[in-house]
UniProtKB/TrEMBL annotation:
<protein>
    <recommendedName>
        <fullName>Heparan-alpha-glucosaminide N-acetyltransferase catalytic domain-containing protein</fullName>
    </recommendedName>
</protein>
<feature type="transmembrane region" description="Helical">
    <location>
        <begin position="234"/>
        <end position="255"/>
    </location>
</feature>
<feature type="transmembrane region" description="Helical">
    <location>
        <begin position="360"/>
        <end position="384"/>
    </location>
</feature>
<feature type="transmembrane region" description="Helical">
    <location>
        <begin position="207"/>
        <end position="227"/>
    </location>
</feature>
<feature type="transmembrane region" description="Helical">
    <location>
        <begin position="105"/>
        <end position="124"/>
    </location>
</feature>
<keyword id="KW-1133">Transmembrane helix</keyword>
<feature type="transmembrane region" description="Helical">
    <location>
        <begin position="283"/>
        <end position="301"/>
    </location>
</feature>
<feature type="domain" description="Heparan-alpha-glucosaminide N-acetyltransferase catalytic">
    <location>
        <begin position="23"/>
        <end position="233"/>
    </location>
</feature>
<dbReference type="Pfam" id="PF07786">
    <property type="entry name" value="HGSNAT_cat"/>
</dbReference>
<keyword id="KW-0472">Membrane</keyword>
<feature type="transmembrane region" description="Helical">
    <location>
        <begin position="130"/>
        <end position="150"/>
    </location>
</feature>
<feature type="transmembrane region" description="Helical">
    <location>
        <begin position="321"/>
        <end position="340"/>
    </location>
</feature>
<dbReference type="InterPro" id="IPR012429">
    <property type="entry name" value="HGSNAT_cat"/>
</dbReference>
<feature type="transmembrane region" description="Helical">
    <location>
        <begin position="71"/>
        <end position="93"/>
    </location>
</feature>
<feature type="transmembrane region" description="Helical">
    <location>
        <begin position="157"/>
        <end position="177"/>
    </location>
</feature>
<keyword id="KW-0812">Transmembrane</keyword>
């Protein structure tokens, strides 16, 4: 059965197969948007000195433009992870059996973890040798966990993902420092902290809630195969339900996020406090608001056409390639700017404070963001063409 790129017939896992190379444009466009917005966050990390001086979500030090620049990029990691679950389901439709799907998931998951350790971490630690386990680590662990779940009915995987997201905040009061020799395991699962085995670095993305996000994406993936109008209604209904759940829980302030919102003398700061949800690990509030917006974007992106739709789809067809490429372009650009300004970079790789002449400020970071996105686009067009023309097995890992 051939499925059009922008529309899929109603189907179940047992009765539909996607032909090799077929893609759903709404997924590619949403991935592409995530890549572009994610680049803004990463450019800010390297070109705005405030990113090194304090947490942009620290309401005692931040300002609205900086906070909102950080907040909008919160949508990237959960959307990426959710779509990884969706894509795992859709990819499995073209495979012979669920065993083959499981093998693909755990090998790709391991590959992403290795990439995060050996290719991505050196960017963030500027070659210091430390390891920062972030987005690719979380998605990779999620894929490995999903490889053990694909033998279950899709609704069971959905229930497991939802249960993890709904319940993991029950463990917010459990801290690694209380667990003795099991502390490193808790840092891997639920609380950001140092790497196990005495390794230099940190686990920035504890994996338990991210497993919930990828399982949720897998469980909701059949919706992407519904007829167009039914699919659009489902995305809007789910997105609104997620946002309503976020608003209700956030107002109540009794469960779902260790960081409660506070009332400030000025309304703007109170509003920022309401939006100031926890990412490390991603709280229930964080998951609801970010995934809710992502689901609402899908109908609009499915209708997107012209140059905007084409650019988004191009980035979305090569997300891993774009992710790694943009990090190295950002690093090289930041080093060039630092050398041109005579900045002493000594100590920055170990968390030291930046000198006064470091970076270009937030406005300069926005300019560099646009320039870097434009710079990597031709390479993404080329690689998207390679993936479209060729069917080499290794291309499915990139």
């Amino acid at each position: 059965m051939t499925i059009m790129l922008d529309e899929a017939p109603s189907a179940t896992r047992e009765h539909v197969s996607l032909p090799a190379g077929a893609r759903l444009l709404s997924i590619d466009r949403l991935r592409g948007l995530v890549i572009i917005v994610m680049a803004l966050d990463h450019v800010r990390d390297f070109f705005d000195a405030d990113a090194l001086r304090f947490d942009p979500t620290d309401l005692d030090r931040t300002y609205p433009a900086l906070f909102l620049t950080r907040f909008v990029t919160h949508f990237c990691a959960p959307t990426f992870t959710f779509l990884a679950g969706v894509s795992a389901y859709l990819h499995a439709l073209s495979l012979e059996d669920r065993g083959e799907s499981a093998r693909f998931l755990w090998t790709r998951g391991l590959w992403l973890i290795l990439l995060d350790i050996f290719i991505v971490s050196p960017v963030w630690t500027v070659g210091s040798g430390a390891i920062e386990l972030g987005t690719l680590w979380a998605i990779g662990c999620g894929m490995i966990a999903l490889s053990a779940l694909v033998s279950l009915p899709t609704r069971a995987v959905l229930a497991i993902g939802a249960a993890i997201l709904l319940l993991h905040n029950l463990f917010d009061s459990v801290h690694a420092a209380q667990l003795g020799e099991f502390a490193p395991l808790w840092n891997v699962l639920h609380e950001k902290g140092p790497l196990p085995f005495g390794l230099s670095g940190q686990v920035y993305y504890p994996v338990l809630p991210w497993i919930g996000v990828i399982a949720l994406g897998y469980g909701l993936a059949p919706i992407f195969l519904w007829p167009h109008e039914r699919r659009m209604r489902a995305f809007v209904a789910l997105g609104l339900a997620f946002l309503a759940g976020f608003a209700a829980l956030r107002f109540a302030g009794v469960y779902g996020d260790a960081r409660l919102w506070l009332t400030y003398p000025d309304g703007a700061r109170t509003a920022l406090s309401f939006l100031n949800v926890s990412k490390y690990p991603p709280s229930l509030h964080y998951a609801l608001v970010t995934l809710g917006v992502g689901l609402l974007l899908l109908p609009a992106l499915e209708r997107a056409g012209g140059a905007v739709g084409r650019v988004l789809a191009t980035f979305g067809r090569v997300p891993l390639f774009a992710y790694v490429l943009h990090l190295y372009v950002i690093l090289v650009a930041a080093l060039i700017v630092a050398l041109a300004k005579g900045v002493d970079l000594k100590g920055l790789e170990s968390g030291g404070q930046p000198p006064e002449n470091y970076g270009l400020g937030l406005a300069g970071a926005y300019v560099m963001w646009m320039l870097i996105i434009a710079a990597i686009y031709p390479a993404c067009v080329w690689f998207a063409g390679v993936k479209r023309r060729r069917r080499d097995w290794w291309l499915s890992y990139l």
